[in-house]
Design brief:
The chain is an alpha+beta fold. It has one domain. Helices cover about 15% and strands about 25% of the residues. The chain has 4 helices and 16 strands. It has a 4-stranded antiparallel β-sheet, with no helix packed on it. It has a 4-stranded mixed β-sheet with strand order 14-13-12-15. Strands 4-5 form a two-stranded antiparallel sheet. The longest helix has 20 residues, at about 1-20. It is globular and about 60 Å long. The N and C termini lie far apart (about 45 Å).
């Protein structure tokens, strides 16, 4: 009987482990949609009229729900026990991705690539010349376009010193798209920015989790297979995706700048 019980327990453990291994590793998050095309929740918390058509995304709300709060400011310890200071990064608890708080520390729009191989600048005083070289500049010097990005998240406990991380990258198009909240229209948030970005909720009021975010296109690291060199972009104003622009243009055909932010993590 004992042998049979042990064998049964081993079989149960095997099937449990096998089921976990066969699980789907990337469940899709909810979109945040609140209506079927006309409904919305504005950045100040007010809602428009909502028509939840049967079968619409807003009526089904399928996908993984966002945690609340979704975004958490990362901090470093100080000499005072229990007191911390922001380190210039935030963590998205839905995806596990870590973002720069400053969503435009370069200050201007830029091209995706350049004619010089997107090389890392020779010194911190020399700005990069493309989105791809800006990321190399960020990892080398903690700067984009010779401007500090405020990242001090690499903290050493022994020496009690902090510096910038060295594994930042240009987000791919799906990572950028994960920031879009489809229940938000192009409205001005509490930071005065026109945005469709997924908000941080503070006392029930949506707040843009980033500083200096631009109501414009952002470069992804995802190249466009239909023509090289082209890359996909995401519009932080209205949430538009699946756009691509010639990679040597810093603006779209409508004269809107293409900006750069950075991400790290899984």
């Amino acid at each position: 009987m004992k042998i049979l019980l042990k064998q049964s327990l081993k079989l149960i453990a095997f099937y449990a482990a096998t089921s976990a291994a066969w699980g789907y590793p990337a469940p899709v998050p909810q979109t945040g949609a609140t209506g079927d095309g006309t409904a919305y929740t504005a950045a100040d918390g007010t809602s428009g009229s909502s028509t939840l058509a049967p079968g619409s995304d807003a009526s089904l709300t399928k996908g993984v729900a966002s945690p609340n709060p979704r975004f958490v400011a990362n901090t470093n310890p100080t000499a005072t026990v229990g007191v911390t200071v922001p380190n210039g990064t935030i963590t998205d608890k839905l995806t596990g991705l870590i973002w720069l708080v400053n969503a435009n520390c370069g200050g201007v729009a830029t091209t995706w690539t350049d004619a010089n191989g997107d090389n890392v600048p020779a010194s911190s005083a020399i700005p990069g010349t493309s989105a791809l070289s800006w990321i190399k500049e960020l990892n080398a010097y903690g700067k984009i376009n010779s401007q500090s990005c405020g990242d001090t998240s690499k903290y050493t406990t022994k020496t009690k010193t902090s510096t910038h991380q060295t594994d930042w990258r240009l987000p791919n198009v799906r990572e950028l798209d994960s920031l879009i909240q489809y229940g938000r229209r192009v409205v001005t948030d509490s930071n005065g920015v026109l945005t469709s970005l997924a908000p941080v909720f503070s006392a029930g009021t949506p707040v843009n989790p980033f500083t200096n975010s631009q109501s414009a296109f952002y470069w992804s690291s995802t190249s466009y297979i239909g023509g090289d060199p082209n890359a996909w972009v995401v519009n932080f104003a209205d949430g538009g995706t699946a756009l691509f622009l010639p990679s040597k243009m810093s603006t779209s055909g409508y004269g809107i700048g293409v900006f750069v932010t950075a991400v790290r993590g899984p």
